Amino acid sequence: MKSSLIVAAFCLALQGAAFAQATPPEEQGKVVASGTVPDEASRAAILGKLRDLYGAGNVVDRLEVGGVVPPSNWTENMTKIIGPHLKQVHKGQMQVSGTQISIKGNVANEALRQQVVSNLATSLNPTYTIDNGLVAAGGEAQSVLDKTLSNRVVEFEVGSATLTPAGRVILDEMYAAIKQIGTPKVQVIGHTDSSGNRQANVSLSLARANTVRSYLIEKGIPGENLTAVGSGPDQPVGSNDSSEGRAKNRRIEFRLASQ
Fold it and tell me: Which of 136, 165, 194 is the last residue of a domain?
């Protein structure tokens, strides 16, 4: 059985993750830590970091101890991910099960959405995976785009900006999703891993974003509603020290643009 930590019901006044689902009145507006941790030392370490971050009076301890076998250095990694970046998340929840991390909630803008997950990824070793459920300002429309992409990767031929057939299938679905939410202005953001020359990676990420933009324009999305951005290796969502992490970092994202 894997160790787990669920951090829920953070107060909006604290700018923390607040997941108000089924929260008792006495716990509303507070940090609630629940789940099972391997030992008393883990419990004390996790609660200590939360109390330092949010204040002792704002943390509710619902953690249970024992009966689980943690991955190597699990407690150390848990204390690493409890940091100031979490206070940028509103109405959210972070859940950890062994080496699987899921984070949900709202952040003020796309830059923060990227930064929170990047901070999590860079503080952990390559065995950890992160499911990014954060939503930048834009609400339900952004959720439609995220759910349609569903953490899949728009594939290109190796080292090029040429779409594969599988990549085109995903873009056909993204086209339908953009139409579904009223054809808003959308940023198409290309990302790479950190292998090779940084400037070459930035250029490749922009070329791929432009390929996606052109494909969607051909499908019928007005060109003025689509902007291509190349971020290169600067916003990782996984560790570049592993092949799995690098594969996650080579991606296309679709973000509602500021109107």
Answer: 136
- Give the helix/strand (H/E) hosting 7: strand 4-8
CA distance 116 to 236: 11
CATH number of residue 248's parent domain: 3.30.1330.60
**Alpha carbon distance 143, 137 (integer Å):** 10
Cβ neighbours of residue 196 closer than 8 Å, sequence gap 6 or more: none
- Are 114 and 168 contained in the same domain? no
Domain-ending residue, one of 120, 136, 152: 136
Together in a domain, 131 and 162: no
**What secondary structure letter does DSSP report for 9?**
-
Note if the pTM is more than 0.70.
no
Confidence band, pLDDT 50/70/90 cuts, at residue 193: very high
Mean of pLDDT values over 46-64 = 87
